[in-house]
């Protein structure tokens, strides 16, 4: 798909979406990763909704495009438009907020239903600097991640902990997936055109649309 | 205040957007102000001729270009260095072809046997010159020339041109295909060409992308009329639906959408106006990538507006609501057709992972949100939402204090009311006087009557026999016998 075809030494292009409830720290994570900034009032960055990062992993060039998504509940139904054609998804929750972890579980269900196993999932417990206020147990979170074929990470955008590792790991996994796909294609099974186009929206899960919008984001 | 009116100036009168045939669909400048349907009916024959002309032009250009190649390489010592990689290219293609019969062969065979020329042009088409005939070839002409100029710098340039031209021509004879199939054809062509370019450029994505951009520009400039909002789809109906929907949502405020921009700041409202202009401008472009550029420019203006207001980097939760607000304000013409056209015919790598693709995706989200929007998504009750939608009520404006103009009107109205009350009282008083006058008159008449009666009773009328003639003092003809009167004077004659 986004990885394109052709010779061995080409550049990989990956699309990664950030999903999660409002205020769990999605924007903070990417800003920290791409610009090494946290709560920086110095406005040199115009926007933190679409950011790119160029990497070189074991001699291969990788262009990473990171898509922030609107996390407010009223935009939940738009998820499929955002995540179609993405190679990876980073599902963020706040370790001090049990609800935000439940939201991650909903996202996982939806993503697996819509995109199958083509997409690399990362579940990220953010704000580990607030360990003493933790409301989501490490065992539960890691156990859940393993049960759905996702990787689990602990990060702190504030302290810049675990973020570099998260993205590097994800890139390696996406490269493996892309290479596997290429090999499959080489064997004659070329089915990559199916998911190419057609914007469509899936009706919102009625249970997901309970809480009304509104969040700290307007502050 | 001043920037408000400026913003209003952006809106185009709806009637100007409609098909000039009055069928109710949206017209388009590129179709002489007609809708796609009327345009097709009106210019079917002219367009037929255009295709022939385009074909002739492309052939001429190719001959010129081949001549240029020949000239270039005549002077060179090596006979045909640029052609060598081509033959390899071709070889590989043939092998591929035998393996996967479907793709390239399908596209290149119809063009090989070129359609019947000249004689198929109907006479009346020649005798009815339309302004579009002179307009369209000019643009395609220029694009073709620019495409050739661009390709001249590349080794496989000629091969790329040949294939793009053949493919574009073959599309003209696939008009009966559905939109998705047309899209599939174009996308397969992009895919194949870019795969081969990847091999040629040894994996340099940037160079492949730059060629693919030019390929898209050349092809879509020529195919635009054929494949934008095609008859086989309900794109046009969807355009009307979203247009209507946006008009019905005119009452939605910045506060309801939680848009983080403050239009009281002149710089912010300036960016809002620019963003609105950009998203409207999208419809005027023919090439998908040019349309994407309009969306990207619109998005940058939105980020400027957010940054000026909030003084921090805008996240998706800031951006999306603002974009929704801009779309509601702009009500861009043929929004769905444009989105579909871009989705179907844009170079996929631009759409899927590039920055332009991110903004385009957000535009799709904004449209989806507007379509599905309900009370809950604006933090309104169902009743409030229904009232606003039906136009029975409009939301309370944030400023509860009446404006000066409003209070002036109120005090004027109160003055008038006071005046009216005063007039009523005075009228009552006049009526009272009139009533009193009337009763006085009645009393007076009664009094007079009474007195007359009284007098008549006291002095009853006695009837006397008529008096003797002597008593009469009348001097009239009946009394001729009255002797007491001197005899009348006699006329006398005076002799003399
Ligand atoms: N202590 C702590 N606070 C954090 C961390 N990451 C983010 N925050 C804070 O959490 C709040 C929300 O962060 P954002 O990055 O805006 O969250 P978001 O997920 O992008 O939220 P939405 O854009 O509303 O969906 C901010 O006040 C951040 O400063 C972290 O690692 N530790
Ligand atoms: Mg955010
Ligand atoms: Zn019409």
Automatic annotation (TrEMBL), chain A:
Q: What is its main location?
A: other
Entry-linked SMART domains: RAB (SM00175), RAN (SM00176), RAS (SM00173), RHO (SM00174)
Does the record's keyword annotation contain Transport?
yes
Note down the stretches annotated as region Disordered: 181-203
Q: State a GO cellular component annotated for this protein.
A: cleavage furrow
GO MF annotations in UniProt: GTP binding; GTPase activity
Q: Which GO terms describe its biological process?
A: protein transport; Rab protein signal transduction
Top-rank taxon, per record: Eukaryota
Q: Please report the record's description of how this protein sits within the membrane.
A: Lipid-anchor
Q: Which InterPro entries match?
A: P-loop_NTPase, Rab21, Small_GTP-bd, Small_GTPase
Question: What keywords would UniProt list here?
Answer: GTP-binding, Lipoprotein, Membrane, Nucleotide-binding, Prenylation, Protein transport, Transport
Q: Spell out the subcellular localization from the entry.
A: Cleavage furrow; Endoplasmic reticulum membrane
Cite the record's Polar residues compositional bias ranges. Answer: 188-197
> Family per UniProt?
Belongs to the small GTPase superfamily. Rab family.
How is this protein named in the record?
A: Ras-related protein Rab-21
- What is the organism field in this record? Oncorhynchus mykiss
TrEMBL record, chain B:
Q: Which residues form the A20-type domain?
A: 13-47
Q: Which domain of life is it from?
A: Eukaryota
Q: A single GO molecular function, which one?
A: small GTPase binding
Entry-linked Gene3D superfamilies:
1.10.246.120, 1.20.5.4770, VPS9 domain (1.20.1050.80)
What cellular-component terms does GO give this entry? cytosol; endocytic vesicle
Give start-end of the signal peptide: none
Enumerate the SMART domains for this protein: VPS9, ZnF_A20
Disordered: annotated span: 106-139, 461-496
Annotated GO biological process:
vesicle-mediated transport
What does the UniProt keyword field contain?
A: Metal-binding, Zinc, Zinc-finger
- The segment(s) forming the VPS9 domain are 236-379
Protein name per its UniProtKB record: Rab5 GDP/GTP exchange factor-like
- Whichever gene encodes this chain, its name is LOC106612901
